[in-house]
């Protein structure tokens, strides 16, 4: 697998945007520093730019030619930073305003996939201003008695919970309201979890995740050494091809471009794949999934980073 890349001189001066003030700041710092190190080793004129510590107008005084966005979560992955950079006339990596905003919002993501008849689990929406605890029993019955609760616009599994009773659901929704005023309540799919990375329109090999945790939560992603990653994932060639096409279709449906990742569950009984969510600025730490998938395809971390940077050379 090969990607379009350019010379270090063609990239010019690059700001690696990291940190920020979202709930995913710590992960963003780790991702950004790993990416910066790879760029520097490739001879790219790059430097770290923490948006929590600097003003965006500093990009002008720094004579930046392009920005590699490594901000996870709100303020970096939701379209707001993309819009600001467009106003400044500075090219950036990954999805544009629309693709970023849609992908960040789990509810709108599911609504689009549902309208296009792409497979995704059944769901209900809880809105803070009109949430009634008495509705939890009906929601549990409608969604099969086991659900995942997710703040609509958070990443890294922050604020998420798996519940199996109406009382647990009420508590989980109230906890999720601390992060967002809209909460997705999604039917739980019993089965294996996969993720597919998409870079420059190409699907990388799928990864299957296995964790002793209740689900693939923040700790399982970034802190715990008990999580196992399988790549090859154990799918047949036909299933791998089907999953790759599903995930690229799902990514395109959200107007996402450049690079990203799509997460999927496979029902243990029917083997049907169900789309969970899309990420337009996935993690790039040593534990992150995109670098693992790239390595399985024979792509080094440096090559991957340069492929991501190359997405800034085309309009988002």
Automatic annotation (TrEMBL):
Can the keyword RNA-binding be found in this entry's annotation? Answer: no
Q: Name one GO molecular function term.
A: ATP binding
Q: In which pathway does it act?
A: Cell wall biogenesis; peptidoglycan biosynthesis
Q: What is its EC number?
A: 6.3.2.4
Q: Where in the cell is it found?
A: Cytoplasm
Could you provide one GO biological process annotation from this protein's UniProt record?
regulation of cell shape
- Give the co-factor note: Binds 2 magnesium or manganese ions per subunit.
Function recorded in the entry: Cell wall formation.
| Similarity remark | Belongs to the D-alanine--D-alanine ligase family.
Q: What is this protein called?
A: D-alanine--D-alanine ligase
Q: Which organism is it from?
A: Marisediminitalea aggregata
């Amino acid at each position: 697998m090969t990607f379009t890349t350019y010379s270090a001189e063609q990239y010019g001066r690059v700001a690696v945007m990291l940190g920020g003030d979202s709930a995913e700041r710590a992960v963003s710092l780790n991702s950004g520093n790993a990416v910066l190190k790879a760029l520097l080793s490739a001879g790219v004129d790059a430097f770290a730019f923490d948006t929590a510590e600097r003003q965006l107008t500093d990009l002008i005084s720094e004579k930046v030619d392009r920005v590699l966005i490594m901000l996870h979560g709100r303020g970096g992955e939701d379209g707001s930073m993309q819009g600001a950079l467009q106003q400044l006339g500075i090219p950036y990596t990954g999805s544009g305003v629309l693709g970023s905003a849609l992908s960040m919002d789990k509810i709108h993501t599911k609504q689009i996939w549902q309208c296009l008849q792409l497979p995704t689990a059944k769901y209900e929406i809880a809105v803070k201003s009109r949430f009634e605890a008495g509705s939890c029993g009906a929601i549990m019955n409608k969604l099969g008695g086991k659900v995942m609760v997710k703040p609509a616009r958070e990443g890294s599994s922050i604020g998420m919970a798996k519940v199996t009773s109406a009382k647990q659901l009420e508590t989980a929704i109230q906890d999720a309201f601390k992060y967002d005023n809209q909460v997705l309540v999604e039917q739980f799919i019993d089965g294996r979890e996969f993720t597919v990375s998409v870079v420059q329109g190409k699907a990388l090999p799928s990864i299957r995740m296995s964790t002793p945790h209740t689900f693939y939560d923040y700790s399982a992603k970034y802190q715990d050494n008990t999580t196992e990653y399988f790549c090859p994932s154990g799918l047949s060639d036909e299933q791998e091809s089907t999953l790759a096409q599903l995930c690229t279709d799902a990514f395109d449906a959200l107007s996402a471009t450049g690079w990203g990742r799509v997460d999927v569950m496979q029902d243990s009984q029917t083997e049907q794949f169900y789309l969970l969510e899309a990420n337009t600025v996935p993690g790039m730490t040593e534990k992150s999934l995109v670098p693992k998938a790239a390595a399985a395809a024979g792509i080094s971390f440096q090559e991957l980073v340069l492929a991501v940077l190359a997405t800034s050379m085309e309009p988002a």
